[in-house]
Write a structure and sequence with these properties.
This protein is an alpha/beta fold. The chain is built from six helices and six strands.
Length: 206
C-alpha cells in the first residue's frame, strides 16, 4: 500500500492502544468509471435475493411481517431456525454446531429458475442482539471469509434482526474473486419471518 493515496481494503481491523492490526481479505484499486460495464455485468448479478430462490417462492404470497411476528422470530433459537430452513429446502442432513465450522448448513438442493445451486448458510439467532455486524460473525469476526472456502455457488447470511451494510459490503467484496467468483444472499429478520410464515414454520420455541 506504500505510496497509494486511495485503496479499497476489506478485512478485519483490531485497534489496540496506538497500534492497528489489519488482516486484509481483499485489496484493490478504487475504480470510478468503467463505462457501466462493471455495474451491469457483475454488481447487479452477484447478489441473489431470497425471492429468486425457488424453495422460497411462497414468501411472495404473504404480507410483510407484523411487529408481533418479528418479536416471535427473535425469540426462536438459532438451531430452530436452521432446522426450519433445512426442512423448507428439503435438506435432510443438518450438522450439529461446532467451533471449527465454516458454515452452519451446506446444501446442494437449492435452485434458481429450475437450475441447481449449491449454498452455504450462516445463521445468527437471538444471541446477536440488534443489527448484525462482521464482528458478530465468529469469535474473530472471520466466519464470513471462512464460509467462502466452502465449495458452493452462493453464501447465504441470515439473521433474525437487521443486517448491517458492512456485512453486505464484505460479502460483496469476497464474492468478487477472479479465481472463483461467487454470489451472496442476505436474509434479514423481515425476510426470515416472511419465509418461515409462508411455510408454516414461524412458531414459538419448543
Amino acid at each position: 500500500l506504500s505510496g497509494r493515496k486511495r485503496m479499497l481494503v476489506a478485512g478485519q481491523f483490531e485497534f489496540t492502544g496506538g497500534t492497528v492490526e489489519v488482516q486484509p481479505f481483499v485489496i484493490g484499486d478504487m475504480i470510478s468509471d468503467m463505462g457501466g460495464v462493471l455495474a451491469m455485468s457483475w454488481s447487479q448479478t452477484v447478489r441473489l435475493y431470497p425471492q429468486a430462490i425457488d424453495a422460497f417462492a411462497k414468501m411472495n404470497d404473504v404480507d410483510a411481517p407484523t411487529s408481533a411476528e418479528l418479536t416471535l422470530l427473535q425469540q426462536m433459537p438459532e438451531d430452530d431456525v436452521k432446522h426450519a430452513f433445512a426442512a423448507i429446502i428439503g435438506e435432510p442432513f443438518v450438522p450439529k454446531d461446532w467451533g471449527g465450522e465454516k458454515s452452519d448448513l451446506s446444501t446442494s438442493r437449492l435452485s434458481v429458475d429450475g437450475k441447481p445451486l449449491s449454498a452455504a448458510f450462516i445463521f445468527k439467532g437471538p444471541a446477536v442482539k440488534g443489527p448484525m455486524h462482521p464482528a458478530n460473525m465468529g469469535k474473530r469476526g472471520d466466519q464470513l471469509p471462512r464460509a467462502y472456502d466452502e465449495p458452493v455457488d452462493v453464501i447465504v447470511v441470515q439473521h433474525c434482526d437487521q443486517i448491517a451494510n458492512s456485512v453486505v459490503r464484505l460479502a460483496e467484496a469476497l464474492a468478487f474473486d477472479v479465481r472463483n467468483p461467487r454470489r451472496y444472499c442476505i436474509i434479514d429478520g423481515a425476510d426470515t419471518a416472511r419465509i418461515l410464515k409462508a411455510y408454516g414454520r414461524l412458531k414459538a420455541a419448543t
